[in-house]
Amino acid sequence: MIEAVAFYLFATVVIASGVMTIASRNPVHSVLWLILAFFNAAGLFLLLGAEFIAMLLVIVYVGAVAVLFLFVVMMLDVDFAELRAGFARYLPFGTLLALVLLAEIAFAVAAWNAGDIGADARVAPVDAGIPNIQLLGTILYTRYLYIFEAAGLVLLVAMIGAIVLTHRKRGGTRPQNISAQNRRRPQDATRNIDQPVGQGVEL
């Protein structure tokens, strides 16, 4: 009974937080609603017995991604009124994408329930004596090893691309020349002038 109440409580808050994340006009409020959705999703994982994924969700998504979004939104001077100005123009295309996604979800649910496959056959056998983290690591580094390595390769390429874009040569900038600064003498940087009284400084 308590598990059912907790499930419906967490699920309701997750859905409400997701809706408010999209519907909020203030982007800071949207990020805060997103953090609330992450916490309640972690509660749902705890009810499923996946405590490692729940802690991972809190540490990685709430502690890193959502907080990073919050700092970026608060520090950047973004004109959100201008961004929302084109909402009506892209509304038909966004609606079409939403309908396509909804159709894909309905097709996946129908395919999942089709045939004579029972509910027990869709669940992988789990040994109660093995911890959840050990089972997750075994599956991740055996069956999904190549997919895991491909995901790491994609992240590596993205990181290298971000570094290359940051250090690309741009015109109109004055880079720092450390060797020229070290060779500079004090007499090259200052000039002693006997300034007469009552006259301004000539630059």
What features would you describe in this structure?
The chain is mainly alpha-helical. Among the domains are: 1-78, NADH-ubiquinone/plastoquinone oxidoreductase chain 6, subunit NuoJ (Four Helix Bundle (Hemerythrin (Met), subunit A)); 132-166. The chain contains nine helices and no strands.
Jot down its keywords.
0% strand, mainly alpha, elongated, Four Helix Bundle (Hemerythrin (Met), subunit A), 70% helix, 203 residues
Summarize the structure.
The protein is built from nine helices and no strands. With 203 residues, it is mainly alpha-helical.
- Based on helices, strands and strand pairing, what is the structural class? mainly alpha
Q: Give the helix level as a range of percent.
A: 55-70%
Approximate strand percentage: under 5%
Overall CATH class of one domain: Mainly Alpha
Poorly predicted parts: none
Integer-rounded radius of gyration:
29 Å
